[in-house]
Amino acid sequence: MVRITEQLIRKRSEHNELIIGTLEELSLHQEDIECIEHIGSWCRELKILFLQSNLISRIENVHKLKKLEYLNLAVNNIERIENLEGLESLNKLDLTLNFVGELTSVETLRGNYNLRELYLTGNPCTDYVGYRDYVICALPQLESLDGVEITRTDRLKASKDFRANRARIVQLELKHRIDRDEQKVRVEESLREQEESVKDLDEEQRATQFWQQKSEHCPETRNMMAKYAKKGRERPEVGVGNGEKVPQRTLKLFAECGRPYSLNEAKIKFEFLDEDDRYELNLHIYKFLDTSCIEVDAQPNYIRATIKGKVFQLALKDEIKTDESTCKRSTTTGQMLIVMPKLNPQNVSFREPEVYSKVRRDAAAKTDLKGTVDYKNIIKQGGKSTEINEEEIPPLI
User: Could you tell me the CA-to-CA distances from 67 to 35, 38, 59 in Å, in that order?
Assistant: First the structure.
C-alpha cells in the first residue's frame, strides 16, 4: 500500500520551492495510493487536487480543504460519494471511471452550493433509467453534467417526475448492491483458485498467466492489476528470446575514443551562440525548479548540466577557459546563462576587399556634386524655366 507522506508531497511541489503549507495545486496521480490522508492538515491552501489513476476506495479526510475548487478522483475504486460537505468552494468534481452504484449519494452534494460541474461518466449508476434527470433535479446548482450543459428545459422536464424517478433509482441501487455482493464472493473465489494454480510457478510466469486470463471489471481486479504492474516495473531486467537477460540501457556520455557526445536527456529548450571570443549557452530551465537541483560542469571541450539527474551535455568545437567561465541564473524567468571564453579566440576581419573600395571611389569621382543648387529652376516645362512665387512657398519649419 502506497501512503501519502510528506516526502511524496514535497516531491510533487517543486513549482512551489518544496513548500507545502502554501501549496495551491497538487498532483498525486498514478501513485497507487489507496487512502486519502494528511492532505487536509498539511495543504490547507489547496485549490486544485489531482488524485486520478490511483486505488482510492473511499473519499475521506478532505473536509479541511475550504479553498479547494477542483477535485479530480477519476479512475479509482470509489463506490459512494461522501464526506465532501465541508468543501464549500468546490466548483468541479470529476469521478469518471469509478464504481459509483449508489446514485442517491449525490444528494450529499446539495450543500456544496458552488458546485457547477460534475462528471460521473463510466460509473454503473449512469446506466440507470432516469439517471440524468434525477441528478439534475437533486443538484439544482449544477450547470453541467458529464460535460453536457444543463438547460432550463432539462430542469423543467426533470422536476415533473422526480419522486417517481427517485423511487425507481432506489430499486435499481438495491439490485446493484445485491449483484455487487455476489460479485465480491465470486471474484474472491476466483482469485483464490488462481493463486492456488500458480503457486509452483515463478514470478514471471505468474504475471504472464494473470494478464492472459479473463477477469471481471471491479475494484478487486483493478487492485490485482496494479499489483502485477508494480512488480513488472520493479523487475531490474527483462527477459528476451530463450530466457536470456538483457541489462537496462545505460547512458553513454563519451565515445570509445574519448570524444564527448552531445545529448539532451533533460528535454529542455536551449540557445547556443558561437562568438569570436566566447561561447554562450542559455538553458530554459523550469522557473520554479530549485537551483540546488542543478549541477554545471565546464570542461575544456564540453559543457554539462545535470538537472534533477537528467543530463544535458554539449560538445564544443574549440577549447574554453574553464576557470574564467561563468554561470548565472535569472530569478525572474529561471533561465541559466553559461558564458565560456575561448582559449584561442578567433580574430575575424570584416575589412572591405580592396576591389570594392576602388569601384566605389571611381563612381564617386564621376559624380560632381560641388557648387550651389539653383532650386528655382529645378523643374522646367517645355525647355523654359517656370517662375516661382516665393510668397506661396511654405516655411521649411
Answer: 21, 16, 17
d(CA 92, CA 119): 8
According to the model, what pLDDT value does residue 258 have?
Answer: 83
Write down the pLDDT at residue 156: 93
**pLDDT at residue 19 in the model:** 84
Angle CA 201–202–208, to nearest 5: 85
Encode pLDDT of 229-261 as tens digits.
887 777 654 444 445 555 556 778 888 888 888
Find the mean pLDDT for residues 313-319. 89
| The two domains 6-174 and 263-341 share their CATH topology (first three levels equal) | no
For β-strands 326-329 and 310-315, DSSP reports them as unpaired
pLDDT of residue 362 exceeding 90, the answer is no
User: Between vectors from CA 242 to CA 238 and to CA 248, what angle results, nearest 5°?
Assistant: 20
Sequence-ordered strand ranges (E) for 52-189: 70-72, 92-94, 117-119, 144-145, 148-149
- Listed in sequence order, the DSSP H helices in 45-143 are 131-138
CATH number of 263-341: 2.60.40.790
Phi, psi of 50, rounded to the nearest 5 degrees = -105, 120
DSSP code at position 144: E
Domain boundaries, the chain: 6-174, 263-341
C-alpha cell read off for 5: 507522506
Are the C-beta atoms of 335 and 282 separated by less than 8 Å?
yes
- 357 class by beta-carbon count within 10 Å (0-12 exposed, 13-18 middle, 19+ buried): exposed
Give dist(CA 93, CA 143) in Å, integer: 12
Question: Measured between alpha carbons, how far is 102 from 111 in angstroms, rounded to an integer?
Answer: 18
Q: Does domain 6-174 have CATH number 3.80.10.10?
A: yes
pLDDT tens-digit map of 52-81: 999 999 999 999 999 999 999 999 999 999
Per-residue pLDDT at 291: 86
pLDDT at 206 over 50: yes
Cα radius of gyration (the chain):
36
